[in-house]
Design a protein that fits this description.
Blueprint lengths: L2 H26 L25 H9 L21 E7 L10 H17 L1 E7 L2 H13 L7 E5 H4 L24 H7 L1 E2 L2 E2 L11 E6 H6 L5 H6 L5 H11 L12 E3 L5 H7 L5 E2 L2 E2 L4 H15 L13 H7 L3 E7 L3 H7 L5 E4 L13 E2 L3 E4 L7 H11 L11 H7 L3 H12 L2 E2 L10 H9 L4 H20 L2
Parallel strand pairs: 1-2, 1-3, 7-10, 12-14
Antiparallel strand pairs: 3-13, 4-5, 6-10, 6-11, 8-9
Helix pairs in contact: 10-11
Length: 472
């Protein structure tokens, strides 16, 4: 048994022990609030060392030194919210579930904070189909549906921030043990201020799921070897996909395919650190973007991927689950369903292949979202303090998404690949602009219209769509 597997078993045992200890503690305390955190350690009286008792010396040797306090933690605040109900709005119920030791700590923290600061909390869920319209209308009317509201970056920045409808909250998110610093300081920025926050330290994980069983049946070089050799790039990706396009029963038709999709414009963009738009400018003429568009066009026109059979947007996932397609570009939230539907196959994960201008592997999002506080809401500093202290816990996990990744990925290399792309997550902004003709643009690329022609045709249209939002 290798060291990692031993650590995983030990981790599982530790989780069970911690959960049992928490339950015992809750029962013995009658379900009351948890003990308050200890104050900073007091300096011991300066007695000579030889005057200390033997017991004191032995205790000092036996007990490890306490970990230093988090320097970025907000100092304790004393305020009374007068029985106010904090409303948290999203397109799902964000109430904390007691489904793991970390969340049990959060629930205990919340209960203690409610008593100390005299407030209650309500979680409001609004159907995703009508969410944006309802929430934005409430903000524009100065009557927000909640105190803490989840918003998509694509319709919040700059459309809402430039109207001064959201509080900048970056001064309250310094605690990097709680708040995801990239969310506030990178993804949800507008004119140098951060408007979004989250306690979720994980990132959106996307890449290439592959059928390791089929790979072995076809006698292909293991995909992980390309990653290990730092040779997993666009060229080797196409090479592998074409190698898996086979007619194994000699009936004149392909019966295995290398790639489930024919169009992959967004992952190709972020894999080359490129973008169609950049803040208030179109970015089609950037060399990185040109390279990405050329590759996307080649992938489609060379018919590298499995051709459509007239299905909807879920068709590539369906193809992959049939067991006769080697690779599928997807997101980690799909892994549980994939494993459930493919019990007889060994599923692996590698990054989306690296573009020629990229410095690292990346995942990416084009509809990023985070929590915000409407400008009409009073005392944002109190709300941010409460959110911080709810989530200021001693996590039992070593890294974000550890439970999901170790549950559903069977190989250590797969887990490391997922962690690597998460670390490099990028956010694309082209969905910010309602009038930007994204699908017309992509359609012409896929139909084989030259990249130079497509860029020349659309660059002014893209800029006009951007100006419509930024200069309105």
């Amino acid at each position: 048994m290798n060291r990692t597997m031993k650590n995983r078993k030990a981790f599982g045992l530790l989780s069970l022990i911690l959960m049992f200890a928490l339950l015992v503690s809750a029962c013995s305390s009658g379900g009351g609030a948890p003990a308050q955190p200890e104050a900073s350690a007091k300096t011991e009286a300066s007695a000579p060392a030889d005057e200390k008792t033997t017991d004191e010396s032995e205790a000092a040797e036996a007990e490890p030194a306490a970990e230093p306090a988090n320097a970025n933690s907000t100092p304790e605040m004393d305020f009374d919210m007068g029985g106010r109900t904090i409303k948290v709005v999203a397109w799902w119920d964000m109430q904390i579930e007691d489904n793991n030791p970390d969340n049990i700590q959060r629930i205990e923290n919340l209960e203690a904070l409610k008593k100390k600061h005299n407030f209650d909390i309500e979680y409001i869920s609004i159907d995703f189909g009508e969410y944006q319209e309802k929430v934005v209308a409430s903000l524009m009317a100065g009557e927000p549906l909640g105190d803490i509201v989840r918003l998509g970056k694509d319709y919040a920045i700059p459309a809402l921030t430039k109207q001064d409808l959201l509080w900048p909250i970056d001064e309250y998110t310094k605690n990097d043990k709680v708040f995801n610093q990239k969310t506030t300081n990178e993804y949800m920025q507008y004119e140098g201020r951060g408007y979004g926050f989250t306690e979720d330290q994980s990132s959106f994980i996307s890449g290439i799921f592959y059928n390791r069983t089929l790979m072995q049946e076809l006698g292909l070089k293991p995909l992980q070897e390309y990653v290990d050799e730092d040779d997993w790039n666009w060229d080797t990706f196409v090479k592998v996909a074409k190698e898996a396009n086979k007619d194994r029963n000699n009936d004149g038709k392909l019966d295995t395919w290398g790639l489930a999709q024919t169009s992959l414009i967004e992952p190709i963009l972020y894999s080359n650190e490129a973008s169609l738009t950049q803040e208030d400018k179109q970015n089609l003429e950037d060399p990185k973007t040109k390279a990405a568009l050329n590759f996307a066009s080649k992938l489609a026109t060379d018919k590298v991927g499995r051709p459509t059979e007239g299905g909807d947007w879920t068709e590539p996932s369906t193809f992959f689950r049939q067991g006769n397609t080697l690779m599928y570009s997807g997101a980690m939230y799909e892994i549980e369903g994939i494993k459930t539907d493919m019990p007889d196959y060994d599923i692996g994960f590698v990054p989306f292949p690296k573009g020629p201008d990229a410095t690292a592997y990346h995942s990416g999002e084009s509809r990023y979202q985070a929590l915000t506080i409407p400008k009409a809401v009073e005392n944002p500093e109190q709300l941010m303090y409460i959110w911080e202290k709810i989530n200021e816990i001693d996590s039992i996990y070593d890294y974000p998404e550890q439970s999901t990744l170790e549950t559903h990925l069977s190989d250590e290399a797969d887990i490391e690949n997922a962690r690597e792309v998460a670390k490099g997550m990028l956010v694309l902004d082209h969905n910010t602009f309602p009038s930007l003709p994204y699908w017309d643009f992509v359609g012409e690329l896929n139909d084989g219209v030259s990249v130079s022609t497509v860029i020349e045709k659309y660059k002014a249209t893209f800029q006009s769509a951007i100006d419509e939002v930024y200069k309105k």
